[in-house]
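Reviewers of the previous submission asked for a worked example of the structure-prediction workflow described in the proposal, so we include one complete record here. The input consisted solely of the amino acid sequence. No template or homolog information was supplied to the procedure at any stage.
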Amino acid sequence: MKKLLVVLGVLALVPGLALAQSPSYYVDYYSNNAGPVPGAPDQILRIINVGEAGTPLTSPTGDICANIYVFDNNQEMIACCAQRITPNELDSASVGTQLTNNPVTSVVPWAGVIKIALTPAGTKCDPTAAALTVDTADATLGVVFATHLQVTGGAKFVTETELLPSPLGLLEGAFLEQACSFAKYLGSGKGTCTSSTPGK
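From that input alone, the workflow returned the following structure tokens.
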């Protein structure tokens, strides 16, 4: 009888284990960056705190950090930053004027990759110490939209996409934080980016 109870107990734990969340984040691209394409509209990254852990009335409870890591097309991190977002708040960042305008390489890239890790907000948001190596990065804390500049046959037009979550490996999480630290250290003022709340 005791063996049966043990087996039933283990089986009862299995669904819970299956539902345990692994770290997740958002990955986006940019191309035809506004700097190298004169007269082109800037591309915009928009992040919303969905209020999973609180409401505007409970803030700072429910606040999240949007940790943003920007790469050029040679897989080199050129900038990183973090922004605190309160429940139901919209945050946005322009690719050309906020994310890629102060690269550690001093060269504004034409194309590259942006990675966004959402984490619960602590006392401050710090992309070099976001604890991405543990299960703190959770894409369900927010939703992310991004516009992209498309150039075809000389014509320019903008598309917008809601990003889908991607799994965040622990090695990648540690790399993002370390590369961000290096970019800030080596940049001596370069290698940083910003985002802002529209209307403020």
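Residues 21-187 form one domain. We consider this example representative of the routine output the project will generate in years two and three.
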